[in-house]
Structure formats: structure tokens, C-alpha cells
Amino acid sequence: MKSEYKIITDIIKENTRVLDVGCNDGTLMEFLKINKNVDIRGIEISKEKVQICIAKGLTVIEGNAEVDLKQFPNDSFDYVILGQTLQAFINPEIVIRELLRVGKKTIITIPNFGHWKVRLNLLIKGTMPVTKSLPNNWYNTPNIHMCTIKDFVKFSKTIDFKIFKSLALINKDVSNINNSNLFFKNLFAELGIFLIEK
Amino acid sequence: MNIKEKIKTIIVDKPLKLDCGQTISKFPLAYETYGSLNENKDNAILVFHALTGDQFVTGLNPVTNKDGWWSFAVGPNKSIDTNKYFVICSNVLGGCMGSFGPSHENPETKKIYGTDFPVITINDMVNAQINLLDHFGIKKLFSVVGGSMGGMQVLQFVSNFPNKTKTAVPIACTSSHSAQNIALNELGRQAITADHNWMNGNYTSKNTVPDKGLAVARMAAHITYLSKKGLQEKFGRKLQERDDLKFGFDADFQIESYLRYQGSVFVDRFDANSYLYITRAMDYFDLLKQFNGNLSNAFKNTKSKFFVISFTSDWLYPTSENKDIVIALNAIGADVGFVEIESDKGHDSFLLDVPDFLKAFKNFLDQAYNE
What we know:
The complex is a heterodimer of chains A (198) and B (371). Chain A is α/β, with parallel strands linked by helices and 198 residues long. Chain A has a single domain (3-197), classed as Vaccinia Virus protein VP39 (Rossmann fold, 3-Layer(aba) Sandwich), CATH 3.40.50. Helices cover 35% and strands 26% of the residues of chain A. Chain A contains eight helices and eight strands. Chain A has helices spanning 3-11, 27-36, 47-55, 65-68, 92-102, 116-125, 149-158, 182-188, and strands at 17-21, 39-44, 59-62, 77-83, 103-111, 162-170, 173-176, 191-197. An eight-stranded mixed sheet of chain A has the order 3-2-1-4-5-8-6-7, sandwiched between helices. In chain A, a hairpin with a 2-residue loop joins strand 6 and strand 7 (173-176). The mean pLDDT of chain A is 95. By secondary structure, chain B is an alpha/beta fold. Chain B has two domains: 3-176 and 286-370, Alpha/Beta hydrolase fold, catalytic domain (Rossmann fold); 182-279, Rna Polymerase Sigma Factor, Chain: A (Orthogonal Bundle). Chain B has twelve helices and 14 strands. The mean pLDDT of chain B is 97.
């Protein structure tokens, strides 16, 4: 089990209603269903992944979060999860607003573009970083809106949402992010995990 | 054995008030079953057929001696696994495979009903078929499934009887027949009624059949069941048993010959008046209007688990219309899954060997059954 999934599972309370946006092959959904007994739905853009989810007995809608979140009423889920996909949207701002509208709470995880390896890559090589977690080239990457942990924290003030929990994942270790350590977490964390509310 | 002996029928005693205002009672409903009902009676699936289907879902249709219309999807180890599930399918009201329809005799006049038969709706169809549950002593179905008009019946069934099924699978359908759908059906009806042999619907008493009109209706409809790409790949401009164009109006092209064949075999198995009545029922289908413009209200009392399926190349009941159903269900927090299957086979995809569809359909049912 990915450390990321464990952290998300720890945040989510039992017997709640959860929507996993970009649910992939349903691994997290299954894990949450078993461990937290949640009523969970997924949205997934890939037909192949949707098929895998159906075979697991998961309730998944084939769709694009950028347009298909519209159909859910306000506050229709206790938690909405967006795992490492914010950077792939054409308009992340609209998506975040939609997540906050549909979910009472939203959990967003962000691959940190401020990580020192990424920075070093660009500094030394002078080319767009290609790393283990970001394996695509600039011309074929689905990740068109990369941001750093610091960017996301700043963003919370721009579009006015509250961050209730911010966690950094560094070599499978989880730690809290706060104002005083933000500089270092932004340099060393591979992943930022945020619990936010409107 | 004559045809009647091959058809199982229940007589519905309970009066049924139709949407048109008339009440019918003691009417026959023809059905067929596959697999066996388990002890708990919780493994039954009610299959609804489409416009030109009938109760003979799979195996050999004893009347036409051809494969059942959903042989790819229903049978041992198939999507609807008859080793596991008990499948019931009935010929719709207004149909011509044994259920009460316009080819029946009016007991009062001793004449064939023809166009004196009351106009039937999708709502009437499912209200008639609910009687099959009582007949088999089934309190709650495991699933209601169907494609095209069968899918419309699925939606209407769940709306009318929210506690009567655990799951529902509407496939390649709509919640409201579009202007294009109505236009295409009207084309078919006009072809039939323009045939001199139609005789205002009294062709049986005149010992004739409007076969030309019915064949044209079928040909036109058949085109709508396929996709442009599918047609092009299968037929292209290939010529029919000739090396060059003949500069006449015979079937030079394979597609012409194919359509003529489809038309000609159809008239042997289908009644022209039934075609009028059933297409009318589809045109009148508007679940949205039934619930004053809020489709969600159609499903607000149900706990059924839905799985909606559409096909990329289906332009008759496109993905957008299937998605409207998903949207309405999500708006009330219903349990609904959805997948759009990639296929070049058009609307007909749900009847054909489309592995991704058959796989998703099977996985959904089998997983839901184990829950």
C-alpha cells in the first residue's frame, strides 16, 4: 500500500460518503471501503481503468472531472479526494472550486515541483525536469499545471479556502507542514497532502 | 407443433388502466425463461426487449428458428450467466409474439383489432410485466436490464416499482425520445401506412400484408442502428455479385442488397401494426415530462444500484442522452456507475459481440450479486 493512501485513509472517518476523483484502478477506493466502511464513488477518465473498477465491484463513472463534477449537488460527499491529478487539468482553479463545492472536506495530494531534485535538474541541465515521479517530457506530459507545495499554500489565500491539515511525504515519512518549516518541506517533500475546506 | 404451442403465456386477470384511458383485463402476456429460480427467489433478472425483439432472448428462437436476439449476452457463463441467474423476458404489450397486441381478435367484434387496438406506452408495458413477478412468486428481482427500448422500460420499471429490483442496467437508451428519434420512427410508420396493402390496418381480414412498406421501414431503421464507419468498413462501395455497375436500379452495391435482405426477412417475422404501436410507445416515452422536468424525481424512492452503458458510435441514443440519466441519478446521490464502450458498431453494439461491453456487463452483475 502506497504511503499516500495510508495517510488519506487515516484522515477519513468511518461510515462517511466519499468521492474519489481520478480513482484510477480503484485501489484506494477498495482500501477505504474495507478499512473505513465508506460509501464510495469514483470518477475516472480512462475506459480501461473504469473496467478494472467495475470488475472489483466499485461504483465508478467514466468521466472528466473538469466537466463532470457539475452533476453533484453541493456538499453531497463528506470527503472528496483528488490524488495527484490537479496538475493535469486545463483549469485547476475551477476544479478546486468544484471539489470544495461538492465535498464538505477535500483531500488533495500534490507532486511537489519544488523538490530539490527538480530544482537541481533545471538549474544544472537547463531542461525541464524528468524524474521518477514525473517521467514525461515537456512535450508529452499530461501534467500541464505543475505547482510546488508553497504555490498551493499561496493559492489557498488567492481563492480563499482553508487548509486544515498539510502534510509532507519525505521518503515515506509523514510530517506536518507549517509556516516556519514551509521552506524546507517545499525543498524536500516529494508529495504534499492537504485537507481543505471552503 | 404450431406456433402457439411454442409460446408460454400468462393471462393477466387484474385490470390494467392504460395511459390512453382504456382499461384492459384478462389479456395474454407471452414470456420465456432461462436458467432456474433459486430457493430464495433472489436470482431473477427481468430482461426487456427492444422494438423488434421478443421473449426468445437466447438459444434457438422456436418460431423463427434463428438465434435469440441477445445470444451474445445471455447464456451459460455469458454476461447474464444462466447457470447462475433466472432470466425472464416477456413479449411487450402491443407486440406480435403472443402478447396482447393489434393482431389479436377483439372479443366484442370478433374482428382483428388492427388500429382499434389501444395506443400503448412504455409505462403500460412495464405495468403489464410486473404481473410476471407474482406469477413466479418473486418479491424482488436481482436485476432489470435492457437496451434501447428495453432500457427505457428499465427506467420506467424502477420509477414505477422502486423496491422491486436490487440492480438496474439501462443500456444505449434515453429518458426522453428526441425529435430525431421521433422523426425516424415516423418515417417507418409512413412507409407502412403508405403501402396500399396496409388497408387502414385491416390487412389481415383482406388476406394481405403491407410487406413492402414494412420492409422499407425496417431498412430505414436498420441504417440508424449502424454507424457510418461500420457501414463503410463492412460494405464500402463493394458491388453485389457483379464486376461493374449495371446502369439500372437493381442492387448494384452490397449495402443495397444487404438492406433489401434485412427488409425481406423482417416482414416474415413481424407484424406491421405492431411496428406502428411499438414505435409510438417509444415516441411517447418522456420520463422527464412525467416528472415535471426533473428526471431525478423519477428515481428518488429507489435504492437500486444502477449501471448505465453507452456506445461511442451510437448516434441514435448517444452517450450524452445516457449520461443525462447518470446525472439525474447522481443529483440524488443514487448508486450509479457508468461506462461508454468504444465500438464502431453503432446502436446495435449492445446486441453484438463487443467484448468490452460483455465484460463490463458481466462484471457488474456478478459483483453486485455477491454483495
